[in-house]
Amino acid sequence: MAVLLIAEHNNKELRPFTLNAATAASQIDSDVHAVIIGQNSADAAKQLSELPVVKKVLSVEGAHYENFTAENFAPVIVKLAENYSHIVCSANTFGKNLMPRIAAHLDTSQVSDIIKVISPDTFLRPIYAGNAFATIKSNDAKKCVTIRPTSFDPCESTGGSAPIEKVDSSEEFSNTKFIKREEIKSDRPELGTARIVVSGGRGMQSGDNFKLITEIADKLGAAIGASRAAVDAGYISNDHQVGQTGKVVVPDLYIAVGISGAIQHLAGMKESKVIVAINKDGEAPIFSVADYGLEADLFEALPQFMEELNKLNTIQK
Amino acid sequence: MKILVAVKRVIDYNVQIRVKEDGTGVVTDNVKMSTNPPDDNAIEEAVKIKEAGKATEVVAVTVGEEKAQETVRKALAVGADRGIHVKVDGILEPLAVSKILQKIADKEKPDLVFMGKQAIDDDCNQTGQMLSALLNWPQATFASKIDVKDNKLEVTREIDEGLETIEINVPAIVTCDLRLNEPRYASLPNIMKAKKKPIEEIAASDLGVDVSPRLEQLKVEEPPKRKAGIKVANVAELVQKLKNEAKVI
Using one digit for the tens of pLDDT, what is the confidence trace for A14-46? Predict the structure, then answer.
């Protein structure tokens, strides 16, 4: 039986992690169908049909799907599930909210946040904030799996031409009402997908001092991250938080400034390709995961860093 | 309004966990255990709602082995009125826990069920949503703000794109984010008082729920270690290494 991928989108276009989830789905079985539930989401459905790994698109339209409420989405997918062996989506807040509601209806024990497909029924997933990896085999007839998007490459986004089939909508769940969404707008790359992330911790000492980080991030075309300590101290808003309770990032370059490296922060960034730590405490745990460690006062090091960057003829973007 | 709060006993968040050499799990003997951190936020919020006069009773429930009762006792010490301990040994998956909680909800008829958004041991992030599905109640996950309005709640949710606000009718499930509030500490007099509050013990087997695991944990291993890095002497060397050695800028 085929795998059903749940597409994440904003009714106009696919959200990027749908491509990573599609890759994971195609590693489970080459026969991947994708369902898109929304309102006036035809453009996003067309985009989905162009992913070469997707063999068929199921499109479900309804006014009550406009805001992606799990209570409205779950019945649609539960109904479709009889034709599929696996239901797959991203383990971001969209998938985390939705998938367990589907799994419970199907009486299936969900496998959350996998980082590797070992076989169609066996998966690798981090536990204890990434301090251990568990190999899990599912014995349920239908498997509900959420995937950690940063552990799978995005699939090709063009060249496919899967048929798009309309599917009937389900009844509206009337006890949950969407009020509003406040999206954080930024000209910078998104934290979850940026090639470079520059993060500040409690060592920054104030929100104003984050401008030292902002400058460098601008120069490098980087996203700005923060530790939980910096967020809790009110230096920066919590959408910047990297860690177990924030975002998991896997950039090519992660620069941790004034971050000691609490377990919960390391869980969110230690898979980054190259890690730089700048900290005046030479014993800080962040140095144990850093490829390049600089023991220095950040208030001296950051302006120097900016100067050195200005000397470079070219900077990769 | 009656609020049921589910709490879980986990390895304390400050403990550096160790993987057992035989690959069967992580070491839990002689390791400090605590209440799962966002479950503390769930208790705190329920108690605050009661203190504001908007709830009449807060009941703390846990599912697990004998010692799990400590988490209920702690909830009683910070303001829960009574406790329930559903006793069961062995590995419990979120699906099994949500089925047990469904039985407790059927019996207690709470207006709200609160719990942490995720347990920091298995990191599953499933139980609240599964319970909502089984009860067919609305779910407000990853809550960072809760306003109680008669028989409705307005809940602000932490989502990847920012914040989302929804309105849900009771009965409902709310899973709590660490940002929801600052959990209080239990005072010594309250810890003493909590010892007198009742905890009802129920055997999971009496609830008629099949809790046998569906998943097999084949192996638990240490994550691959990063190779040791180097210390650089100054910023100029750092930038030179990033440019010419790592080739990332």
Answer: 999 999 999 999 999 999 999 999 999 999 999
pLDDT, tens only, B36-84: 999 999 999 999 999 999 999 999 999 999 999 999 999 999 999 999 9
Tell me, yes or no, whether A235 and A144 share the same domain. no
* CATH code (residue A41): 3.40.50.620
Which chain A residue lies closest to B218 (C-alpha atoms)?
A135
pTM of the model: 0.92
CATH number, domain of A243, equals 3.40.50.1220
Regarding the domain delimited by B2-245, which CATH topology (the fold level of the hierarchy) does it fall under? Rossmann fold (3.40.50)
Q: Tally the domains of chain A.
A: 2
* A127 → closest Cβ in B121, B218, B231: B121
Across the interface, whether the CB atoms of B165 and A305 are under 8 A apart is answered no
CA distance, residue A23 to nearest chain B CA (Å): 21
Q: Nearest by CB to B220, from A132, A138, A244: name it.
A: A132
Angle between helices A93-105 and A70-80 in degrees, nearest 10: 50
B162 touches chain A (CB under 8 A): yes
Distance CA B240, CA B201 (A): 64
CA distance A166 to A187: 36
Single-letter residue type at A67: N
Note which residues in 185-224 of chain B have CB less than 8 A from chain A: 213-223
pLDDT at residue A3 in the model: 98
Same-domain check for residues A100 and A160: yes
Please identify which residue in the block is written with the tokens 């204890």. A128
Residue in B26, B93, B124 nearest the CB of A132? B26
User: How far A159 CA sits from the closest chain B CA (Å)?
Assistant: 29
What parts of chain B have a pLDDT lower than 70?
none
Which tens digits make up the pLDDT trace of A98-142? 999 999 999 999 999 999 999 999 999 999 988 899 999 999 999
In chain B, what are the domain boundaries? 2-245
Q: Which domain does A262 fall in, by range?
A: 196-311
* ipTM rounded to 2 decimals: 0.95
Contacting residues for B138 by C-beta, under 8 A, at least 6 apart:
A71, A173, A175, A176, B132, B168, B169, B172, B173
Of B154, B215, B231, the CB nearest to A295: B231
Q: Judge whether A178 and A69 are in contact, CB under 8 Å.
A: yes
